[in-house]
Amino acid sequence: MKPSLSTMLSGAADALHTELIPFLRTNPAALGHASMIRLVVYSAATEADREPDTLMTEIAALRMLFESAANMSLPDQLRARLRAAASAAPANFTLSAMNEHTAMMKAVLIDLHAEVEEISTPWARAIELQVWDILRLGADRRQLVLPGM
Amino acid sequence: MLGSSDIQRLAVFMATTLNAPSVAIENVVRIQGGASRETFRFDARTRDCTHRLILRRDPPEQLVDTDRRLEYAAFRSFHGGALPVPKPIALSHDPNIVGRPFMVMERIDNAVALLPFLPDPFGKHREKIGRAFFEYLGAIHAVDPMQTELATAVEAPALNRCWIHELDHWQNVIEVNALEPQPIAMAAIRRLRRTPPPPPKRLAAIHGDYRTGNYLVDAEGSITAILDWELAHIGDPLEDLAWALDPLWATKTGLAAGMLPFDEAIRIWETASGRTFDPVAFKWWSLFSSVKGLGVWLSCARRFNDNQEPDPILAFSGWYCRVRHDKIIADRLSAAAPGALQ
């Protein structure tokens, strides 16, 4: 058994809070910086555990959306991009590679979203709702709850 | 930090500024002064008295001169009037005195800037601070901006172009600074462009960042200084009101700016400003505020990411505040999407 990354980072944030910050009371800038570093490290502890799940879930949802939207009456170039994005995969499963892949998919998502907003059909509304579901759930998953907040 | 040679040159500069034969610079301490400028408190002692001062130095990457001039013009516009605004003392564009251009202003002691994200930043003075907060915002908006020095530092848009002037600016900030595509921000911007707000009846001076954290409060709950005017401009006063009322600053209380019931806050602002609240225009500016917030936080993230500044407040703001504003916008627009269950 090893301490998880989250455990190590949480411990580091707690140590900053209890062992270092009390000794910085006479230096306002250092105290402010240390307090901010504590919040960033605490947030990193949360994100270290959940970010792979957030990204994999988002990639899967975007892939399904793109596959479905590619069959709709959209401009040919956009449909081609939707198909390509739906069939692509991250280069590997490092966070950096998955983030890069998600960024590529979000660029396609922006164009799809803008396109369906201009179309007055039930299927376009359905896609728009799916887009918002993905965006809202992604925003929910990324919220941070900070100590003492 | 300021080195000993910086302090020697500052002493010469302050002697000229204060018209004193000589000045001793003492008690120099860097303090938390936000993410945009390095802030130092210091005393300038002349033969006759001690001046308690604040020095705000530009960040390492050079801001355009107008940003610094703008903030100084805003201080000059509002110091000495109905608002508690510290006296501006000097503005220097010379990078050779303390390493970068800077401004000096009067220091307000025995007061603190409240942290907006604490569970209860206001304590027993919540209502008192809240009333003063909205009264002072109204007082800013009661002033004719064209009669202030601010009008010499910024362009005044036409009434019907206030919204597009700001939206163009903040869309550009987002596009320049975003480290990845921003589907929520882009959807909000499209929505804002499709539904322009009605124009204001008359222009106002806009503080630009009027919120908890940017004013000082003393132990009795009195607001003793309104600070951080670097985003000041001329425009629609609802821009400021919407930013002050953005859900980001309300934390968990559900109160306007975390302090007062919404209706009471609006009533105080209307009385102090002599203006009438327009709920249709406010709805537009409210969504705009969250987009502007994303612009601010994405800029912080960019500056930290590009290693321009190691200040951890940039990392915190660029992360915590950004994801909060993404959620605020996504919740609002997903509920308003055509076909969404209301």
SSE order and pairing:
The complex is a heterodimer of chains A (149) and B (342).
Chain A: H1 5-20, H2 28-69, H3 76-87, H4 95-117, H5 122-141
Helix pairs in contact in A: 1-2, 2-3, 2-4, 2-5, 3-4, 4-5
Chain B: H1 4-18, E1 24-31, E2 38-45, E3 50-57, H2 65-78, E4 88-92, E5 102-106, E6 112-113, H3 126-142, H4 150-153, H5 162-177, H6 183-194, E7 204-206, E8 215-217, E9 223-226, E10 233-235, H7 237-244, H8 262-273, H9 279-305, H10 312-336
Antiparallel strand pairs in B: 1-2, 2-3, 3-5, 4-5, 6-8, 7-10, 8-9
Helix pairs in contact in B: 3-8, 5-6, 5-9, 6-9, 6-10, 7-9, 9-10
Can you walk through the features of this model?
The complex is a heterodimer of chains A (149) and B (342). Chain A has 149 residues and is mainly α. Chain A contains 5 helices and no strands. In chain A, α2 (28-69) crosses α4, α3 (76-87) packs antiparallel against α4 and α4 (95-117) packs antiparallel against α5 (122-141). With 342 residues, chain B is α+β, with helices and mostly antiparallel strands. Chain B has 2 domains: 4-106, Phosphorylase Kinase, domain 1 (2-Layer Sandwich); 112-333, Aminoglycoside phosphotransferase (APH), C-terminal lobe (Aminoglycoside 3'-phosphotransferase, Chain: A, domain 2, Alpha-Beta Complex). In chain B, the strands form 3 sheets. Chain B has a 5-stranded antiparallel β-sheet. A 3-stranded antiparallel β-sheet of chain B has the order 6-8-9, with helices on one face. Chain B has a two-stranded antiparallel sheet with strand order 7-10. In chain B, α3 packs parallel to α8 (262-273). The termini of chain B are far apart. The chains are: A mainly alpha (149), B alpha+beta (342). The A-B interface holds A 27-29, 31-33, 36-37, 39-40, 43, 99, 102-103, 106-107, 109-110, 113-114, 117, 125-126, 128-129, 131-133, 135-136, 138-140, 142-144, 146, 148-149 and B 29-32, 117-119, 180-184, 186-187, 190, 251, 311-313, 315-316, 319-320, 323-324, 326-327, 330-331, 333-334, 337-340.
